[in-house]
Amino acid sequence: MAISDAELMEMEKLLSASGAPALSELRAKFSHLSWTRCDASDVIEPPFRSFTHCDVHLLDGADHCVTVTDDPARATGVIVAFRGAS
Question: Are strands 54-60 and 67-69 parallel, antiparallel or unpaired?
Fold first, then answer.
């Protein structure tokens, strides 16, 4: 399942707001995607997008192994990697 341009814009709007949404809100709004929360230091790949409090990484789970991707058309999930105390 791909992430559309409209969905990317909505995610960016939510994540760039001063009070970032809870992961449960993102899961409810974008239920076709898997969502993972972690600390930014746990992810070595460059983020797809960066915001004040977090980085966003896209996951591609279409093949045998899950990989980080920078292609929204291949994304099946999202990692929200928070910086500092989360």
Answer: antiparallel
Residues in the chain: 86
Buried b / exposed e along 36-70 (16+ C-beta atoms within 10 A): eeeebeeeeeebbeebebbbbbbbbbeeeeeebbe
**Residues 70/34, Cβ–Cβ less than 8 Å:** no
Instruction: State pTM to two decimals.
Output: 0.88
pLDDT tens, position by position, 9-55: 999 988 887 776 788 889 999 999 999 999 999 999 999 999 988 99
Beta-carbon contacts of 79 under 8 Å, excluding residues fewer than 6 positions away, are: 36, 37, 38, 43, 56, 57, 58, 59, 68
